[in-house]
Amino acid sequence: MPVILGVLTETAALETRVAMVPEIAAKLRALGVRVVMERGAGALAHFPDASYVDVEFGSAASILSTADVLLKVRPPTLAEAAALKEGAVLIGFIQAYANPELVRALRDRGITTLAMELVPRISRAQSMDALSSQASVAGYKAALIAANSLERFLPMLTTAAGTIKPAQVLVIGAGVAGLQAIATAKRLGAVVEAYDVRGATRDQVKSLGAKFVETGVSAEGAGGYARELTAEEKLKQQEVLDARIAASDAVICTASVPGRAAPRIVSKSAVERMKAGSVIVDIAAEQGGNCELTQGGETVMHAGVKVIGSLNLPAALPYHASEMYARNLFNLLKPALTSGELSIDWNDEVFAGAVLTHQGQIKHEATRKAVEG
Ligand code: NAD
Questions:
Q1: Which of 348, 342, 339 is nearest to 88 (CA)?
Q2: CB distance 103 to 371 below 8 Å
Q3: For residue 226, what pLDDT is reported?
Q4: Catalytic positions, written as ranges
Q5: Lower CB count within 10 Å: N or C terminus of the chain?
């Protein structure tokens, strides 16, 4: 029996992305998979139903009751989890730490859950890395929001009316999103500098033509991620950064530490040292923000500075964000599809790393401890 792969319309507030695009639906069909989608699921991402060839459309209820594999962008609701076929496979961003009740429901229904945020960040899995694909969308958009919110030019201009000085942009956090923000601000002609606690980012920042802010503090942690800084390190970092923040027209905040609240890097007093008309775009708002004044989903004016707490920026570019996400899902699923049937190799470190629940158990250790104690 060919595997039935279901896709729902995302119901989270302001979500516009979809987990399936026509290009990937065609590839799945070629592999003998039956794709069923909720009517209008791709509409907000500008993929009308008619653009999907060989896909069957139905209601959410019919998809939940027939799908062997359900693809999602955001975590399913409790009602969706309850309506899934027992033993079905669910793949999407699950954010287990924020959704313990959902994780228990998935465990109890015997759902095999593969969490996209748990896909190991190894070279072989780069094409499946949805955290990276969506972060690069967010970084790009953050730079555009900064440019658009700043009531001045970004590039240097030489005109008959004299020369305009380029804007100074500071990017805090040079992970996937930060690097994309740097590249985008550079393309727009700004003078860009960037800071990250991981010294390994220094060369990446420089290769994009930006200056690396040296604070004398390094926080290399396990697995390529940052560790939390000591109080002394934070103070030292802060003095240097405060001066750079004050000198910037736009600050783009992207710093985060996995599984924790975002580090507070831009204080109220640092904002007060910025020139009136400056802008802060804080995409760490999702985890509480890097700026003390950030309010998620809002723009706060303080001492003439706009502090923009951007949430879910990938949803602002849903066409390409969905395309990239659907490709990530396909690259993850493909090795498990043979002659239209699904068979997951649990010895494969990608599946072993991404599995959250399976056969009535929570497989991810940190989640199991958090949810079951
Ligand atoms: P992230 O979203 O978790 O964090 C963003 C950035 O914030 C990181 O670069 C981090 O070092 C930085 N940061 C944390 N605390 C900070 C502080 N106090 N001050 C300044 N900066 C701070 O990171 P991400 O973009 O998802 O990925 C982090 C890194 O993981 C990448 O840059 C890359 O090197 C690595 N990675 C590897 C692979 C792979 O090998 N397949 C894929 C993706 C990412």
A1: 342
A2: yes
A3: 67
A4: 121, 126, 129, 132, 225
A5: C
